Every structure is written in structure tokens, then in C-alpha cells.
Amino acid sequence: MAKVITQIERADAALIDGLAAAGVATVHEAQGRIGLLASRMRPIYAGARIAGSAVTISAPPGDNWMIHVAIEQLHAGDILVLAPTSPCEDGFFGDLLATAAMARGCRGLVIDAGVRDVRDLTQMAFPVWSRAVFAQGTVKATLGSVNVPIVCAGAAIDPGDVIIADDDGVCVVKRVDAAGILQKAQEREAVEEAKRKRLAAGEHSLDIFDLRTRLAELGLRYE
Length: 223
Description:
- There is one protein chain.
- The protein has 223 residues and is of the alpha/beta class.
- The protein has eight helices and eleven strands.
- Strands 1, 2, 3, 4, 5, 6, 7, 10 and 11 form a nine-stranded mixed sheet that branches. The chain has a two-stranded antiparallel ribbon with strand order 8-9.
- Helix 3 links the parallel strand 2 (50-59) and strand 3 (78-84).
- Helix 1 (13-22) runs parallel beside helix 6 and helix 2 (24-30) crosses helix 6 (178-200).
- The longest helix is centred in the last third of the chain and has 23 residues, at 178-200.
């Protein structure tokens, strides 16, 4: 049954912003190498690094009606996340929808389908991670749902989960886990910064990461 859930729980804004600062790779590692969306999800322009609460959309292929519905449900800091009900690369989203979404404080779009008006979206600084860039238009004929559990690019996403996206791709953190994952991500960043300083000072990574013993155990010989 098609439906719109109008009330969803969201993570604390400070947690979301902290996860954005950590970035996709660090968050992915911090939560045990889970949560990544498929590698086909690429940003339409480089340099954006965002995080926000997922407003999820389940939409029929080639039909963007439910994006219009979902925009009405946006709160400031949210990210639209769309999964078509069957594979599709049509251009669901362009500059007009981005204008409407930005007016409600939307931070970006993650869509396992196509987008268009990429030049305009880039000039607007509205970040999108998509399966494709494709000018093919869509219709408004069939209902879908908003703020329901979806599977987007291979990742299970519930409304209100935290979406992190940057040049490395897209990662999801379950809303209830956000605080714990942020702590682990920050701890990981501190460890990496210490290692970065040692590497910059000329130390060998084989020593910093304690790799020599294992190499010898596996039989690597220096001649």
C-alpha cells in the first residue's frame, strides 16, 4: 500500500555533523566495514561532504511523483534517498526540484537512478550522488511511498538513518548507532593522525603498522 509517514525520528544534529566531518571511509571502517552503498553511486561534482537524516522514497521506475511528495516532508538537514522499485536510470531529478528541496533545508540527494540538469545543480551547489546522469524524462502516474524502509544501491536504509556522502561514495549509519559510531570514528581519526605524523617524519609503514613479523612468518625473503 502506498503511504507517507509524516513523523520520523532523527539523530541529533551534532552527531550528524560529526559524522559528516569524519567522512565516508572513516565511518565505514569505524562501524566494522558495513553500510556502504554500491560503488555505482557517484557524486555529480567533486568536493561535497555532507551528512543528514534520510527521508526515504520508494518510487516506480520512470516516475518522480513521490519526490514531490517527499519534499513536503523535509526538515532542515535532511537528505532525500530514492530507490526505484526496479532498475532505472531515467532523470528523476533536476534543478527545479533542487530549488524546492533547498528551500526546505535539504542537504542533498542520493538516488539509485538518474538525474539531469547537472550543470545547474553544480552551480546551485546542490550535491547529488546518483547511479547515472541521463536526460530521459519521467512521468507522474503511479504511487510510491515516503519514509518507509528501502534498499538503495544494496544498503538497507530506514527513514531517519544517517546518510554520509563524499567523494568516496555513500554510507549509512543506523540512527540508534550514530553516537557510538561517531565516537569510534573520532578515535580512529586520532590514531590515523598520529600515524600520519610518523609517516611524514620518515618512518616506514612496515614498522608503524607492525607488518614485518607477519611478512617473515609468511616467508618473504630479502636478498
